[in-house]
Structure formats: structure tokens, C-alpha cells
Design goal:
Helix content: 40-55%
Strand content: 15-25%
Number of helices: 27
Radius of gyration: 34 Å
Distance between the termini: 68 Å
Number of strands: 27
């Protein structure tokens, strides 16, 4: 039974056979069938059928199609096409309002669809340029904790070597430094000095990844321990040319071992759609020599990539390596491995409890669906106006049918009119896209360009054809179904449900609009909540900068605090408090009831950290110079105190690895990183040698004080330039994606409302025009203006209210799902959705009101004069 179900879709097969050249049919069908069964095995039956249809449509190209198609072989086809084109042109000229409404609506929808398509194409192409893409994987690690499974892309530095040596399925294995462990500093040649960032990488790096080599052999450029491979732009900045760069010597500063490196190759700058961005590459063996602790399996400070050999089953390989770590050492908590296709890492980077749970792909899906629905709204305008104004076409249809024109020809005529409308709208949308692209690039942080290669032309053609057919198919069959005898007499024989179809389409339009409005309001509320959220520290008027190198940190901090306008200054390791690194295990205490070790935030900070950031002290004291060296003391957060489990924790002994330390204070919980993550218990350690400095400044004195800080910075070894940021700005940058999403959703909501209102305006105008004589008679009989307003707006109001009632539960479910990505989020209130509905109703009333105003001012004598 399953074998009968799992076959390619018959309709797609018949469609392809009808249009494909005979000499290609057998070969193409065989290839598609083979691909279909492969996709069924690897993915699913639904994915296989969708892919089969996509491949069939992809073959609708001039080289593959029959020379004489059944439709096009008709000798009267050209004359019929020309005749239909003339009729369409005359209809556009005669009924200008309908034409303009459809043109604006469809062109706006198509422009938005094209912009989203360009962005989605850019997102989907990240890391796809590597020739080994289908076989290039990253090794991921799952850590099994009491709270669940946490997934990381960090793995032991020794893993790549071991997999290459012990796993025959691996063609190449590459290890690189993690974000915590990557080379960076100043590289100089003569009087040229550059601040650069790079990678430690295994010798097979340029074989596994397709970064184009301009000079040097990709197989040997990283053989020498002190070799360096530099980027094209770095070579030009250092030497002014790319000629004869190989073999030249560059010198690294203290952060790059204070030594010389020989250039063995030059690579093309990584493209914008590469997640790996670097200026140079050093041999990974240099890291092992310089940092001996990397030679331990416990050193999880690298990223591991592999290229599987042709024909290797990734699922089988996953099963083979799942418990590989335990064959090398026994970790304190269970660690398992799996592989993820490298190019999927950009979009599919979020894991929950060890299971892939989305990532940026959610935004790609969301905006793709939004673009489709926006285009549907525009198509609905065409359908509604075409069917509502059917009386304009009925005599033409009746006469044509009476003289023998087939229904198929009439359907073709109306579909042709729809396609012409869509093509015109597309032509209008092109300049719109060019005008809007700079703003879209600013919002998305991309450099999108509208270009026309074969794939884009095919996609655009499909969009035009599908939009044209969607817009015209119902009106075409509806109009072509009129009975010639009745329509010649002027009797419009409407199907029983035709009016309800129009109403249902308006309901659909405004339901989507209400969902967009509600979504935008919820996103704005969440961003407002994030901005105002009490994080447990004061982030206002605090700047952050790095200060590296051998200098007197104690003296530097002392001088900082002397600057007029500086309230307090401190230093730490691993970044500012906004993104401070350093969570992990390693703490123990007497009477610990937990079977596995607990993960704590474990920041290392200097004196005055608590005071500078305004963190509330609940009990005990903070690190103070009055007590000298505080390295044997700890400060814990209130949640950490609860985990450790003692009411009076001051003076309690905690082991930090092998070191015995004492708790001297408890502070209120404060939030490190974004609100997507829950606050975890925090144990603060003392270390006055951090390179990250945070300085609180008097409000209103920022510019002058920062200039003084820069002057002091330059006095203490100015090898690196002074670069600072406000902590509040760093915090806002954590939600850059959400802010961009909010702006895009605002524009999307506006577009959806405009298109929906255009359709409603057209429908209202048609209704007023159709009922002009009725309104005139009512006014003669004494009807007041309010009763006429109620007459016209009543039906539309009912439709909009139904749309609101349908949209409210849907918008609630969608926004609740989006908010689930935040550990801290707003509570959804019923009035958010009611407000969105009322706003949509108000906009609809304003739109209808423009036409209603015309109706109540009509002269009843003029209405009846034509009777």
C-alpha cells in the first residue's frame, strides 16, 4: 500500500509530458523520479512532491518546450490575442478608477513581494558558495544538565585530528579557534600597521572551505608553523599591491606573539554571505604550541568542521560519533556529539533541549508568508472589482456566446486581461523596488540589489503568471458563465453564492490586516518592555572600552577616577555586563545535594564593579581596596544563594575548582545578556587584571569627559585606538533583529491596510454608483442623511466585524508563539487585539465614508433624470 502512495504526483507528470519535447521526456522523467524517491527517503513524501512540482515548473523554458503547442498552433491565435489586447486596453481607459485601484494594489503587492524575495534569497544563500556544501558539516556538542540539554558549536581542539585519524568517512577535518579563542592584534610591515582579526585553522582549511586563493597553493599554505595567509584587502593595505606578496615578512604585536610571520598565500576577501569573516589565517598547530592546555580533551575552545566522503550517510555518521567524547575522557557531565550541515547553521542556529527549534529561518518564513498574503490581498481587489462590475461585461459576453464563441475562448480573454494587468503592475513595481531598496538595505543591514539572472527571471515569471491566474481565474469563469439569452436582455444571472464570495474575500483581506496590526502592536509592546525592563543594574551614562597590553591597571583606574565628571570606574573580563562571557560549572560546597554540577554565571571583576553599575547589595559587602587582595573571596547573587541553600550565607566556604573561597556578600539578581535567556545564578569572582573597562559619567558631561578619558588612554600605551560604546547602546544592539523586524512589520502593516482599503474604496464606490437612484428616491421620500449613511455602511461594517472576530484568535496564537522566544515577555491583554480590530474598523469607516459623503450630497433630481 505504501509503495502505491509514494509515487510522483500524476498531474505534474502529465503536465510535463504535454509540454516537454519528445527527445527529452524519457531522460527528464527518469531523473525527476530518481530525485523524488531520494527526497522521500531523506526528507518526507510532502517535501518530495513539492520538489517534484518545482522541478517540473523549472523545465518550462524555451529550450525544453515543444515547438508547436496546442494553443499556439492555432492560426487564429495571434488575431485573437490582438483582439483581446484591444478590448483590455479600451476597458482600462473607460473604467479608469478600477484600473488605477488594481494597478496600485497589484504593483504595491508585487514590489513588496520582490523586496522580500531578494532578502530571502540573500538569507538562503549564506554559506552556500562552498563547493563541498552538501558534504561540509560542523560538529556540535550537547551537554546534558539537570535543567535539560544545552547545545553548543564549541568542541575540543583535539577533535578534528582524532576524527581525521580514526573515522574513514571523513575526507577533511578542520579545527578553528572559537570566538573566545581567535588571534587578533596589530600586524605591521615597515611603517604600515593594521588592526586585524583572524583564525587559527588546520592545514585542510582551504580544501574544506571554498575561499578563493589568489596566490599560493591551498594544499600547502598552512604547512609551516609560522606561515600566515592574508586577505586581498589586507595585502593591498600593507603593500599597496597584490604583486609578489608571497614570501614577504609581517610582524605581529604582543597579542600576536611578538614575532614575524611569512606570507604563504593571499585569499579573496570572504564574501558578504559568509558567516566566517577574517583578515588572516594562522596555522592551528601554533595555537597548540603557544597554549599547551589545548592539548587536553577538556579544553573545549575550538570549532570543528568536517567534509564527509562521497556517499557517506550523515545519519549513520551521527550515530557513530554520538558518544565519541566518552571514548577520550570521562566528563563531569554527559556530552554527546552530532553534525549539522555547515550552511544550515546561519538560519537554523537555535536549539531547545538538544532539538533544533528554529532561528533566523523563522523570520524568513514569516516574511515569505507575509509577502504571499500581501499579494493575495492585492489579487482579491481584482477579483472583487471584476465580479462586482460584471454588468459592464454581460452584453459583450452574451453577444459573443450568441455568435458561437466558446466559453474556453472567453476564459482565455479574461485571463489575458488579468495577466496584462499583472504585467503592467510588475513594470510599475520595478521603479518602486529601486526607490525602496536603499531604505530596505538600511533596515536589514544588507546590500541587496535587483538583478536579473536566469533563476530570478524564472521566479519573476512564475510570480506574474500565478498572480495573474489567481486574480483572473474566478472572474473569468464567472463572467464566461452568463447565459446569452438573459444577458442580452440585461438580466444578470448571478450564481447564488456570488455575493457571499465577494464578502468572504473582503473578510479574508481585513482579517489579514487585523493580524498584521495586532502583530505590529505586540512587537512594539515587547520592544518597549525590553527597553524599560529593570535588569538589576543601572545602564545609563556608563561607557565601555577595552584597554589591552602591559600597563599598570591599578594606576590607570586611579587616574580614571580622578577625572572630573567620572563618578566611578571598574574593570572586568569577557566584555561589558551586557554580554559578559563566562558561564560554567566548577563550584562545589559542603552539603551540595545535586548529583550533577550546577551552571553559574561566573564573571571576573575588579574593585567597584558593584558600585559602578549600581547593583543592589542585599547583605554583606563588595570587593574593596580596604581589604587588599580579594581573590579568595566571592560575591553571590540572591538566586545563587538559594541554590547553595543556606539562610546566612556570608562566611560560607565554596570551592572554585581546587581553590577554597569565602562568600562576603549577596547582591540582587542582575541580568547578563538578552532577555531571550533566563537569569541564571551568579557567583562573582575577583580579578583586577581585566581588559574591559566600564566608567559611569556625570549626566550632561559625556563629551568632555570622554575626551579626557581618551587622553588618559593614550598616555598608557596607545598601540590600539580608543574605541568606546555606551552600555545602554550595547544593550539595545542585542535586539537589533527585533527592531528591524518591528520596522519591517510596520511597513508591511501599512501596505496591507492600503491595499485592503483600495479594494474597499472600489467596492464602496461601486455600491454607491449602483444604488444612486435608490438613494435619490429615499431622499425624496424624506430619508435623513444618517439613515443613508447607515444604509451604505451597514453591510460593510458587518463584514469588517466578522473579519475582526476571525483575526483576533489567530493573531493571539501567532503573537504568543513569537513571544515564547523570550524568557521575559509581556502578558498578552485582550485589549491589544480589540484595539487592533477597532483601528481596522475605523480605517474601514474612513475609507467607506469618502464614498458615503458623496452619496448623501447627491441631488435626487439628478439621480432620477436618467430614469
Amino acid at each position: 500500500m505504501n509503495s502505491q502512495i509514494k509515487i510522483p504526483p500524476a498531474s505534474a507528470r502529465k503536465f510535463l509530458i504535454k509540454f516537454l519535447r519528445d527527445d527529452l521526456t524519457e531522460e527528464v522523467l527518469g531523473d525527476l523520479e530518481e530525485k523524488f524517491y531520494s527526497t522521500v527517503k531523506k526528507k518526507s513524501l510532502i517535501r518530495a512532491k513539492i520538489n517534484y512540482w518545482f522541478q517540473v515548473i523549472n523545465y518550462l523554458r524555451p529550450f525544453a518546450m515543444r515547438k508547436s503547442m496546442p494553443v499556439f498552433s492555432n492560426p487564429n491565435f495571434a488575431n485573437m490575442f490582438k483582439h483581446n489586447l484591444t478590448i483590455s486596453y479600451r476597458g482600462f481607459i473607460r473604467y479608469k478608477m478600477s484600473f488605477i485601484i488594481n494597478l496600485i494594489g497589484l504593483s504595491t503587492g508585487l514590489a513588496f513581494g520582490l523586496l522580500v524575495y531578494l532578502w530571502v534569497l540573500d538569507e538562503m544563500n549564506f554559506d552556500k558558495f562552498h563547493k563541498n556544501d552538501s558534504r561540509l558539516y560542523q560538529v556540535m556538542e550537547n551537554s546534558h544538565d539537570p535543567e535539560g540539554i544545552s547545545t553548543s558549536d564549541i568542541s575540543p581542539a583535539l577533535l578534528a585530528k582524532a576524527l581525521s585519524r580514526e573515522m574513514p568517512e571523513v575526507e577533511y577535518a578542520v579545527s578553528t579557534g572559537s570566538r573566545f579563542f581567535s588571534p587578533g592584534g596589530i600586524i605591521s610591515h615597515g611603517d604600515k600597521r593594521l588592526q586585524v582579526k583572524g583564525l587559527y585553522a588546520s592545514q585542510a582549511f582551504f580544501q574544506a572551505f571554498s575561499f578563493n586563493m589568489l596566490q599560493g597553493n591551498k594544499n600547502t599554505v598552512l604547512e609551516d608553523l609560522y606561515s600566515i595567509v592574508i586577505s586581498e584587502s589586507m595585502a593591498i593595505k600593507l603593500f599597496g599591491t597584490l604583486d609578489e606578496v608571497r614570501g614577504k615578512i609581517v610582524t605581529g604585536n604582543r597579542d600576536l606573539f611578538d614575532r614575524e610571520f611569512i606570507i604563504t598565500g593571499v585569499f579573496e576577501d570572504p564574501p558578504f554571505n559568509s558567516t566566517l569573516q577574517f583578515d588572516f589565517v594562522l596555522n592551528h598547530e601554533l595555537a597548540f604550541v603557544s597554549f599547551p592546555w589545548l592539548n587536553e580533551w577538556t579544553a573545549g575552545d575550538s570549532r570543528t568542521y568536517i567534509v564527509l566522503r562521497e556517499g557517506t550517510d550523515a545519519m549513520y555518521f551521527n550515530e557513530k560519533i554520538i558518544n565519541y567524547i566518552e571514548t577520550k575522557y570521562t566528563p563531569k557531565k554527559k556530552k554527546t556529539l552530532f553534525i549539522r550541515q555547515f550552511s544550515k547553521g546561519y538560519l537554523w542556529d537555535h536549539y531547545e533541549n538538544g532539538v533544533q527549534a528554529g532561528g533566523r529561518i523563522e523570520y524568513v518564513r514569516l516574511f515569505s508568508v507575509a509577502a504571499i498574503f500581501t499579494l493575495l490581498i492585492a489579487c482579491i481587489n481584482f477579483i472583487n472589482l471584476a465580479t462586482a462590475q460584471a454588468f459592464r461585461k454581460m452584453k459583450e459576453v452574451g453577444i459573443k456566446k450568441a455568435i458561437g464563441v466558446s466559453r474556453k475562448s472567453l476564459v482565455f480573454q479574461f485571463l489575458e486581461e488579468s495577466l496584462i494587468m499583472t504585467i503592467l503592475s510588475f513594470l510599475v513595481s520595478i521603479p518602486l523596488v529601486y526607490i525602496l531598496l536603499p531604505q530596505v538595505n538600511k533596515l536589514t543591514g544588507r546590500d541587496l540589489n535587483l538583478f536579473f539572472d536566469l533563476n530570478i527571471l524564472i521566479s519573476i515569471t512564475l510570480i506574474i503568471v500565478i498572480s495573474g491566474i489567481l486574480s483572473g481565474i474566478y472572474p473569468a469563469y464567472y463572467l464566461s458563465g452568463f447565459k446569452p439569452g438573459e444577458v442580452i436582455k440585461g438580466k444578470l444571472a448571478s450564481p447564488a453564492g456570488e455575493a457571499w464570495v465577494r464578502k468572504a474575500l473582503v473578510i479574508f483581506q481585513f482579517s489579514i490586516s487585523v493580524i498584521f496590526i495586532a502583530g505590529f502592536l505586540i512587537i512594539e509592546k515587547q520592544i518597549e518592555y525590553v527597553r524599560a525592563k529593570d535588569l538589576g543594574y543601572d545602564r545609563k551614562n556608563v561607557i565601555h572600552f577595552k584597554k589591552r597590553g602591559p600597563f599598570q591597571r591599578e594606576t590607570f583606574l586611579l587616574e580614571l577616577n580622578k577625572i572630573s565628571g567620572v563618578i566611578s570606574a571598574t574593570n572586568s573580563h569577557g566584555g561589558s555586563i551586557v554580554g559578559m562571557e563566562g558561564s560554567g560549572i566548577g563550584f562545589s560546597w559542603e552539603g551540595n545535594p545535586y548529583e550533577e554540577e550546577i551552571i553559574f554565571q561566573r564573571p571576573q571583576v575588579g574593585y567597584d564593579f558593584i558600585e559602578t553599575l549600581g547593583i543592589e547589595v542585599l547583605t554583606g559587602r563588595t570587593f574593596s581596596k580596604e581589604f587588599g587582595d580579594e581573590s579568595s573571596n566571592l560575591i553571590v547573587s540572591e538566586s545563587a544563594a538559594k541554590v547553595i541553600g543556606q539562610e546566612n550565607i556570608i562566611g560560607r566556604t565554596i570551592w572554585d575548582g581546587p581553590k577554597q573561597k569565602q562568600v562576603i556578600g549577596v547582591v540582587r539578581d542582575f541580568h547578563i545578556k538578552s532577555l531571550h535567556e533566563k537569569t541564571i545564578p551568579c557567583i562573582i569572582r575577583f580579578d583586577p587584571n581585566g581588559n574591559d573597562y566600564m566608567v559611569r559619567i556625570e549626566p550632561g558631561e559625556e563629551r568632555v569627559v570622554i575626551q579626557k578619558i581618551e587622553g588618559l588612554y593614550d598616555k598608557f600605551d596607545s598601540e590600539y585606538p580608543f574605541e568606546f560604546s555606551f552600555i545602554d547602546a550595547e544593550y539595545q544592539d542585542l535586539y537589533l533583529t527585533e527592531k528591524r523586524f518591528s520596522l519591517l512589520s510596520k511597513y508591511l502593516t501599512g501596505i496591507a491596510i492600503i491595499i485592503s482599503c483600495l479594494g474597499l474604496f472600489g467596492m464602496a464606490a461601486f455600491t454607491v454608483n449602483k444604488r444612486t437612484k435608490e438613494i435619490g428616491i429615499r431622499k425624496i421620500l424624506g430619508a435623513g442623511e444618517f439613515s443613508i449613511v447607515r444604509l451604505i455602511t451597514g453591510d460593510f461594517t458587518k463584514i469588517i466585524i466578522i473579519a475582526i472576530l476571525i483575526a483576533m484568535p489567530i493573531s493571539y496564537l501567532l503573537t504568543r508563539n513569537w513571544l515564547n522566544g523570550y524568557a521575559y515577555r509581556i502578558e498578552l491583554k485582550w485589549w491589544y487585539f480589540t484595539g487592533a480590530g477597532m483601528l481596522a474598523l475605523l480605517i474601514a469607516w474612513i475609507t467607506i465614508g469618502i464614498q458615503t459623503f458623496k452619496a448623501i450630497r447627491v441631488n435626487p433630481v439628478e439621480c432620477l433624470r436618467n430614469e
